[in-house]
Write a structure and sequence with these properties.
The chain is of the alpha+beta class and 345 residues long. It has eight helices and 16 strands. The chain folds into two domains: 216 residues, Naphthalene 1,2-dioxygenase Alpha Subunit, Chain A, domain 1, CATH 3.90.380.10; 101 residues, Rieske [2Fe-2S] iron-sulphur domain (Rieske Iron-sulfur Protein), CATH 2.102.10.10. The protein binds FE2/S2 (inorganic) cluster and fe (ii) ion.
Length: 345
């Protein structure tokens, strides 16, 4: 039996042991990760072009945190709490285009900026209304029409978006169109961090992804550490063009920029050994994500998932006490683990 100890990794990768296997097996670390990391994280909500209503209810981190929110698309996009400030009824359960949000319980209304508009039965209430009676506004980030929100004191990830904007300054972000047919949701019986770790190194490519290995030049595989992010990229074998830029944003968002468009992976923990992976495809107008060939993403995704499931079984084994980092290939994982230690320590 493993018991949680204080999480640490040595800052010097050449000296460091991997994160303790306790991290993946302990309920305490799992719930601490929700409080200390996911509540402060930025989560993808939607693409502004896909929002068809003025008011759209959704849950922040569905089935984990389940914070009820409203995405408002009025003059601009905002996110509000979906909880009535009277007795906590959920205000909206479906999309609407009304100018006012009315609570079905006792009829209170709010405007689309969250301000209390009418409150029947409160005519004699003293010191009423105050700003506590308005709906809370939620932290929101709009980046190239992609909408992200958080819960409280969000982690600053702006420098990662700055890096993307600078490095991909000719990328046609405005031509990206969501393609439902190549987007998928998977659920796997593995810890969310194991999926992220697999993403954070190209070390496994020659062994696990034979198809991809034929296309990319691993000699020039580069890993750069950003503030709360990791960037990996490499060239195509056939010419010297960049094959892809792989950006990971702490803790659970991956943006992969290809010449056909963008793919996004969102890694949603459901439990310490259950994870939902949302894989969203945004090809450029007139393009589609390549599929069904030895190096296509649908194949690579399944190769990765199969390994992650095996690692889940291994990391919970009594015969595994934690290994070492490859200083050459695993600095992305080392940085991820340092961030986990920083937030959970
Ligand atoms: S709970 Fe909304 S008006 Fe009472
Ligand atoms: Fe992989």
């Amino acid at each position: 039996m493993n018991y949680p100890s204080k999480l640490t990794v040595n800052q010097n990768i050449a000296d460091s042991k991997l994160l303790s296997p306790d991290y993946y097996t302990s309920d305490q670390y799992f719930s601490k990760s929700i409080d200390k990391i996911f509540l402060k994280s930025w989560q993808y909500v939607n693409h502004a072009n896909l929002v068809n209503h003025k008011v759209s209810p959704f849950y922040f981190m569905k089935d984990l945190i389940d914070e009820p929110y409203l995405l408002i698309k009025d003059k601009e996009c905002t996110v509000l709490s979906n909880v009535c400030t009277h007795r906590a009824n959920l205000l909206c359960v479906s999309c609407s285009d009304n100018e006012l949000i009315q609570c079905k319980y006792h009829g209170r209304t709010f405007n689309l900026s969250g301000k209390l508009n009418t409150a029947p039965g409160f005519e004699k209430a003293k010191n009423f209304p105050t700003k506590n009676d308005n709906l809370n506004t939620v932290p929101l980030k709009l980046w190239n029409n992609f909408i992200f929100c958080s819960v409280k004191s969000p982690i600053n990830i702006d420098s990662i978006f700055d890096d993307i904007n600078k490095r991909l300054k000719n990328y046609l972000f405005n031509d990206l169109v969501y393609d439902k047919s190549n987007s998928k949701t998977y659920e796997i019986n593995a810890h969310w961090a194991l999926y992220c770790e697999n993403y954070l190194e190209g070390f496994h490519v020659p062994f696990l992804h034979k198809g991809l290995n034929n296309d990319i030049d691993l000699n020039n595989y580069t890993t750069e550490l950003l503030d709360h992010g990791v960037l990996q990229y490499t060239n195509e074998k056939s010419d010297n063009n960049i094959y892809a830029y792989y950006y990971w944003i702490f803790p659970n968002l991956m943006l992969n920029f290809y010449n056909w468009g963008l793919s996004m992976n969102i890694i949603e923990p459901l439990d310490k050994n259950k994870t939902r992976i949302k894989f969203l495809s945004f090809p450029f107008k007139g393009n589609t994500q390549p599929t069904n060939n030895p190096s296509s993403l649908d194949r690579i995704e399944l190769e990765d998932q199969e390994i992650v499931l095996n690692v889940q079984k291994g990391v919970t084994s009594n015969n595994y006490n934690g290994g070492r980092y490859s200083p050459k290939h695993e600095k992305g994982i080392h940085y991820f683990h340092q961030l986990l230690c920083r937030y959970l320590g």
